[in-house]
Amino acid sequence: MKRIFNYTAIFLIGGILASCATSAVTGRKYLSLVNETQLNEQAALAYKEFLTSSETKVITGTSNATMVKRVGNSIASATNRFLQERGVADQYDFNWEFNLVQSDDVNAWCMPGGKVAVYSGIIPIAGNEAGLATVMGHEIAHAIEKHSVAQASNQIALQLGAQVLGAASSTTNNRAVSAINQLYGIGAPLGMLKFSRNDELAADRAGLIIMAMAGYNPNEAVKFWERMSSAKSGQAPAEFLSTHPSDARRISQLQSYIPEAMKYYKK
């Protein structure tokens, strides 16, 4: 049994290492175990279903709706140029869409494949086009950096690892079994949350670069997050139990990223 476990573990580790990829903007390593074409297709179907749902009201014909599409298209064009210059454009099958949705929620998101939704509740906090570019650049950065691919792949690897460890636990003592149960009962979820916070900071960094390439001043990002922090009601959860970094940490990190982003900024 021990020999079988060793062989299985070696095979699993080798497969995972062979499936590592590098993100386009920040250069972070991530795990890629999913079919991206299928992921994008599923995202496109989900996006269409969301837009056509009776609970969703897409705003059209207003100045804000026009602004969302204008900022989105500017960022998309800049992103496409960047990917072409890096020689990785063929790794992205994006069919961009940008829509403003009626909702009081202060939110925006970008699905794999470039499907973006901006909620009207975030427009007042955005304040101007540069603020909106901060939001959209950040969300688009998640897709460009392929964080959804990485998260899905991590879940797959986690499940495979649990199966291997489960086989090994039958040959270990009670202390080892207890450690395994603790790891997958508490450690793994917190580990995934930590990874999500790292994704958020990576998207902040990549988003600054993307908005700068699109002609928006990266310094406006700090102002946006200061407004966002002031607009929050209630007490934020402890950072280590949240998928997002604390406002103070985020602003501090943004300030450290700005010099890099300014290299891409042309008025």
What do you see in this structure?
63% of the residues lie in helices and 8% in strands. The chain has one domain (36-147, 188-263). The longest helix is centred in the last third of the chain and has 40 residues, at 174-213. The chain has a four-stranded mixed beta sheet with strand order 3-4-6-5, sandwiched between helices. It starts with a helix and ends in a 5-residue tail after the last helix. The radius of gyration is 21 Å and the shape is globular. It has 267 residues and is an alpha+beta fold.
Describe what is shown at a glance.
This protein is of the alpha+beta class. The protein contains 9 helices and 6 strands; from the N terminus they run H-E-E-H-E-H-E-E-E-H-H-H-H-H-H. It has one domain.
Rg on CA atoms, Å: 21 Å
Q: Let me know the number of strands.
A: 6
End-to-end separation in angstroms reads 65 Å
Q: Main beta sheet: strand number and arrangement?
A: 4 strands, mixed
Q: Strand order, main sheet: write it out.
A: 3-4-6-5
What oligomeric state do these chains adopt? single chain
How big a fraction of the residues is strand?
5-15%
- The global form is globular
Q: What is the total domain count?
A: 1
Give start-end ranges of low-pLDDT stretches.
1-18, 161-193
Q: Could you estimate the helical fraction of the residues in percent?
A: 55-70%
Keywords: Hydrolase, Metal-binding, Metalloprotease, Protease, Signal, Zinc
InterPro entries: Mito/Outer_Membr_Metalloprot, Peptidase_M48
GO biological process, one term: proteolysis involved in protein catabolic process
Cofactor: Zn(2+)
